[in-house]
Automatic annotation (TrEMBL):
Protein name in the entry: Transmembrane protein
Keyword Transmembrane among record annotations: yes
Record key words, sorted: Membrane, Transmembrane, Transmembrane helix
Species annotation: Lactobacillus helveticus
Bilayer-crossing regions: 7-26, 32-51
Highest taxon listed in the record's lineage: Bacteria
Length: 53
């Protein structure tokens, strides 16, 4: 799944730099941000589950 987030982010970055889209940079990096949040949530849940006794 990380390849999809990276691919979309790169495509959006190139489109933004070429002037094809006029999105804010927040929208351009949204796929990477969403993937990072998902990974962070999984890590937190794993950490809580590992030390729950």
């Amino acid at each position: 799944m990380s390849w999809l987030a990276v691919l979309l982010t790169v495509i959006f970055m190139v489109a933004k730099l070429l002037g094809i889209i006029a999105w804010s940079w927040w929208l351009v990096f949204t796929p990477a941000i969403i993937y990072g949040v998902i990974v962070l949530v999984i890590l937190i849940i794993t950490f809580i589950a590992a030390f729950k006794d």
